[in-house]
Design a protein that fits this description.
356 residues, alpha/beta, 7-stranded mixed β-sheet, 3 domains, GMP Synthetase, Chain A, domain 3, elongated, 4-stranded antiparallel β-sheet, Alpha-Beta Plaits, Rossmann fold, single chain
Length: 356
């Protein structure tokens, strides 16, 4: 229902600045919508400003004026998907709503259960209402598969696209989720590995994707050199763009091709540290790592899936045995960590190992 309120009026060009200032000094009435016309913006306020507050406002925006106006109440934002859809879908289906989603830039990615397929558009529109920064909602339409680790998606709400810009720990990444693998759930793992790198290290990121490990490491450690390898041409284009966008072209070297061939032809015995984020099949490249690590030894970050009744301990044993088959040795495991749950009774695990 419209309501009369005191307000601050300013030219449209100064609107955002006055909104920020009014928020900062506790003046803005956040229960009411800001109003605009062709020339001005009117910001509702909860009380009359003091002389000192008017002085602060006019110092920043001399054209600001006090006045009154009629304002609409702001719509309450739904907090949960279940709350947003109550009354829109049959009540017995509310329990089937997904409990989590991934947000990559301004794209939300969700898995729609079979029983909700006929209501997927309503689900997508509800996500747009709950997450105001999201412009596109994608539903998973298949599993991650193929050499390039890609997945099919269906747009169920918002703008029809799969590309976006994602920000993480001060870096920004151009991402196309349909063309190159990227998971926002690995953000803290990207940061953790970057924090372990020493100055002047040579790092080999064997399955670099769009560059979240490589770019962050280079940003944090300008004296490090990172060889970022990927076989997916689409990922490689995005990787090169992300290197330029983040201004790390002096210490990240993007390489397109098969990791085994690239190491054998030019990166034997050069690496202080190797990142193996290919959990489905990283074990097939342990011989490549053994060739790439410096003769005096280095650190390997090995990612894999552990599905019950398998265990992290068994994964360690298999890794050490494979290293031994390639005339190297695991001197010690620096850490064994659960990265995230990936399915019922399945986890992604990372082994940090020093091999000699």
């Amino acid at each position: 229902m419209p309501k009369e309120s005191s307000c601050l009026g300013v030219p449209r060009k100064n609107g955002q600045e006055v909104i920020v200032l009014a928020d900062r000094i506790g003046l803005r009435d956040k229960e009411l919508e800001v109003q605009t016309n062709a020339d001005s913006i009117f910001v509702p306020i909860v009380r009359q400003p003091s002389d000192q507050e008017i002085h602060v406002l006019k110092e920043k925006v001399p054209e600001v004026q006090k006045g009154t106006g009629i304002f609409h109440e702001r719509k309450k934002q739904e907090k949960t998907l279940e709350g947003a859809l109550a009354g829109s879908i049959p009540p017995h289906l509310l329990a089937s709503l997904p409990k989590a989603l991934d947000i990559v830039g301004d794209i939300a990615i969700i898995e729609i259960p079979q029983e909700l397929k006929n209501h997927k558009k309503l689900v997508g529109e509800a996500i747009l209402r709950i997450h105001r920064n999201v412009k596109t909602v994608l539903a998973k339409a298949g599993a991650i598969s193929g050499t390039y680790r890609t997945r099919e998606f269906k747009v169920i709400a918002g703008e029809p696209r799969t590309h976006t810009t994602h920000r993480e720990f001060g870096c920004q990444y151009r991402v196309d989720v349909a063309k190159a693998y990227f998971s926002p759930r690995l953000a803290h793992e990207h940061e953790r590995v970057a924090s372990l790198v020493g100055e002047g290290e040579i790092i080999l990121d064997l399955f670099a994707g769009v560059g979240p490990f490589s770019v962050l490491i280079a940003k944090r450690h300008p004296t490090a050199k990172v060889y970022a390898v990927d076989i997916n041409p689409e990922a490689f284009v995005l990787l090169k763009n992300n290197v330029l966008i983040n201004r790390v072209q002096d210490n990240v070297i993007p390489l397109l091709g098969d990791a085994r061939q690239i190491v054998h032809e030019g990166l034997s015995g050069v690496a202080d540290r190797v990142i193996m984020n290919l959990p489905e099949s990283a074990s097939e490249f342990i011989d490549v790592v053994c060739e790439a690590i410096k003769p005096e030894g280095g650190v390997v970050h090995f990612y894999g899936f552990v599905r019950l009744p398998d265990s992290a301990e068994a994964m360690q044993s298999r890794f050490a045995a494979k290293v031994g088959e390639n005339r190297r040795k695991v001197e010690r495991f620096l850490s064994v960590r659960e990265v995230r749950d990936t399915a019922p009774f399945e986890q992604q695990v990372v082994l940090d190992a020093f091999i000699v």
